């Protein structure tokens, strides 16, 4: 549940309530089934604002492997993990066209929060990885 709004003053039972959800479903789930389950527990109006399939890539795709290897070489480390996660990103726009897309970037924390930050040194590493990947893209 992302947000609940109801009423106009504190000391009165509201005549309506608006509940907003942000559902990030897995590739194995069907949004029609999720919507059906929600409809089964409410008698209110349901409005969909954005619906799109979950992104799923082949971790062995040549470009994903190439990026993974570029990161390993640039960071001088074998400790690189490709993993799935809940979230929303522009990768979904590429997946519609069978273009593999993953998220990766500089190190930091508190994403999308008040204390969000990025470690400056990791921005240079990120830039170096992107340049190396681009320079060797078709090799």
UniProtKB/TrEMBL annotation:
Keywords of this entry: Hydrolase, Metal-binding, Zinc
Enzyme class: hydrolase
Span of domain Peptidase M20 dimerisation: 3-41
The enzyme's E.C. designation: 3.5.1.18
Pfam families hit by this protein: M20_dimer
Cofactor(s) of this protein: Zn(2+)
Superkingdom to which the source organism belongs: Bacteria
Listed GO MF terms: succinyl-diaminopimelate desuccinylase activity
Family: Belongs to the peptidase M20A family.
Protein name: Putative succinyl-diaminopimelate desuccinylase
Organism annotation: Staphylococcus gallinarum
